[in-house]
Every structure is written in C-alpha cells, then in structure tokens.
Design a protein that fits this description.
Structural class: alpha/beta
Distance between the termini: 30 Å
Shape: globular
Oligomer: single chain
Largest sheet: 7 strands, parallel
CATH architecture of the largest domain: 3-Layer(aba) Sandwich
Strand order of the largest sheet: 3-2-1-4-5-6-7
Helix content: 25-40%
C-alpha cells in the first residue's frame, strides 16, 4: 500500500537534552520512513533543547518546531490536520493535556489516532492516584495506545481505563547509530553510568551506582548526565556532565562495564527496558542492570547481561569482571540485539498495526 502521512507530536527528535525518549523516537521514525511512510515531527521549543541539538533535521522526517505556548500548540495541530495518522506521545513537556484533548478533534474521518506512551507505568500511576486526571477522559478517544514497554501488566491497566487496544512497542537497537567504536581514554572506567538526575530515579541511582562506588573504592566509576553537580559522591567517581548522543558509543566501548538503572515506576512494573540497555548492548558493551521482571525477553542473565539486586551486587560484578568475560558478554548481547531487537523489527510491528494486518489477541484490552 502507499505510504502514510504521519503527524507525530513528541518532546524532541533533534535534541536528547533532558529528553530520554530521543533515541526511541529516532529509531522508530527512521525505520517507519524506510517502509515508505512520511513523518512530520512536531516539537515545542522548550527546556533549551533547541540550544542543545545533537543532530540536524534528518532526511527521514520533517521537523516542525513551535513555540511552547497554547496558541502555538493549537496552530501546530492545525498543520497536522489531514494526516493519515496522528500520534500524541506522552511527556511532550508543555501543553500535554491540551494536545491530548485536541488531537482527536483535529483527526479527520478515517485518520488513525494514537497515544504513544513513553512512560506508561508513570502515566498509569498518575491516573490511578488522581480521579480528576485529564487524560482519563481521553484514553477511549484514541484508536490505540502504544507503549514504550510494560508488557501485559500495562496492557491490562490501560484496558481498565478504557483503551480500545494497547500494544507495547519496546525499545530497540538502531545498528546505524549504536555500534562498536574504538575506546576513548576520556571515558575509561571500570563502570560507566549515564543518567540525568530525576526525582523518580535518584533513590535507585544512590542504591545501585553511588553505593557500589563506595563499596569498591579501588575501582574507577564514571558518571554522565544532567543535574548531578553538587551531589555528594565518593572520590573514585568522575563526573563528566551531559554526554551527547554522538559520544554514547565511545563511553559504552571505553568502560569495562556499563550500568543501567531503571526508573522507579518502570522497575516496579517490569517489562520496560530503557534505551540505554539497547544502546550499550548494540555497542558490544558488558551491561550490568538492576533487576526487573521480564529481562529474559531481551537478554539472558549471566551470558548476555549481568543482573544486580542492589549496589553490593553491582560492586561484586565489577570486582569479579575480567576484560575477557566483559568482551564475551558484550559480544553475546550484541548478537541477540541484532537477531531480535532492532528498530526494523519494531517498525514491522507498527506497520502491521497501522495497516490493520496485526493480530494481537493477548495484547488486546478487555
């Protein structure tokens, strides 16, 4: 069939600054474009993201940047009128409730309306907590809800809020952007960790990263990400600030191991691997991750990933790890990603949903 015109409202495609979904957006949208679909990505000029771009407008999507006010958001929606598919992602950051309520009204007859939740556990927790949450009234107005992850628990929860169909479209690897590169001395460490300082992650960062550094004083720990200035940390932790996406491969390939720490809500729900898991594995890094349900769907503990239940286990992994074992685990993880978890795989799932050829009986909400 002919390619579809897709209007996508998200936080940012061109800047990963305070925007953990950037890698996910880029991988999904690039892969959809490869199927012949035409994507316009609408993003607000907010949180200084345009001042910290890490990519130019790509050839595989048109980017429309609008001012971060209500009138500009509504004008952007009007520009999207006539698209075959209209997507509102969660966490745009400004005017989310306005966009979520107005998008179904803009969609023409026959247009597909999609809410794409890049933090479903947090969205669902918010709606459960607040009966007046404005998105409660909007869920059933969308033809489907796609999620960044969450598995059947998220599917069932969205069903209880009236979703017609909910399908997890998991993070994945884009082998064109995340792959092995030569090690960079500036990122040399025994354990590397990239994460912005966020309220729903800091407690777990304390438990898994900073505690591990205290317990392994003879090992070198590297921290990248926004917001950690002023954070008390042991002398063996070196903080390098925000790490632009162009340097992610170098960091992942320069440390003996790299750490993933999931956010509170995602860890509690399970089945929600963040982009860092796929970036690191795609670069052939030895990944250490906090424990969460469903990891076996993506990587095999012990052979393709190391799993830790607390900072003591992170420290133990780092102390016991040799360069040879690190290399074996990283190579095995990369093979698994390329075989099962690329954005080409994910785009195939999305295209089947957009064209009505998908069959997800277990994922369909009741």
């Amino acid at each position: 069939m002919a390619g579809l015109d897709i209007a996508f409202f998200g936080s940012s495609l061109v800047s990963a600054y305070w925007n953990g979904a950037a890698t996910y957006y880029r991988g999904i949208i690039r892969a959809l474009a490869a199927h012949g679909h035409r994507i316009t990505f609408y993003e607000p000029d907010a949180y200084d993201r345009q001042k910290h771009r890490d990519m130019d407008d790509p050839p595989w999507a048109r980017v429309v940047v609008y001012e971060a006010d209500e009138a500009s958001a509504l004008r952007a929606l009007e520009l999207a009128r006539g698209a075959d598919v209209l997507v509102k992602a969660s966490g745009v950051g400004v005017n989310d409730a306005l966009l979520e309520a107005a998008l179904p009204d803009v969609a023409g007859t026959g247009a597909l309306k999609i809410f794409w939740d890049v933090d479903a556990p947090a969205t669902l927790a918010r709606m459960r907590k607040d009966e007046d949450d404005p998105f409660r009234a909007q869920v059933a107005r969308y033809d489907m809800v796609l999620t960044y992850g969450g598995g059947q628990p998220v599917v069932d929860a969205y069903g209880r809020f009236g979703a017609r169909l909910c399908v997890p479209i998991y993070n994945a690897l884009d082998p064109e952007t995340h792959h092995p590169v030569p090690a960079a001395p500036r990122f040399a460490a025994d354990l590397g960790f990239m994460a912005s300082r966020l309220p729903d992650r800091e407690r777990r960062c304390d438990a898994f990263f900073f505690k591990a550094a205290e317990l392994a004083p003879g090992r070198r720990f590297l921290l990248g990400g926004n917001g950690w200035d002023g954070k008390p940390m042991s002398p063996n932790v070196r903080y390098v600030g925000h790490v632009y996406t162009r340097d992610h491969n170098a960091l992942n390939c320069s440390a003996l191991a790299v750490l993933n720490v999931t956010r509170d809500s995602m860890a509690e729900t399970g089945f929600s691997p963040p982009t860092r898991v796929f970036e690191a594995a795609g670069a052939g890094a030895c990944l250490v991750t906090d424990a969460w349900e469903g990891i076996e769907m993506f990587l095999e503990p012990g052979t393709e990933v190391l799993v830790a239940r607390d900072g003591a286990e992170v420290a133990a992994h780092v102390e016991a790890l040799t360069p040879e074992r690190s290399r074996r685990i990283g190579e095995a993880a990369r093979r698994r990603m390329l075989a099962e978890h690329t954005y080409a795989h994910r785009a195939g799932e999305v295209v089947a949903l957009l064209t009505g050829t998908a069959d997800h009986p277990v994922r369909r909400t009741a």
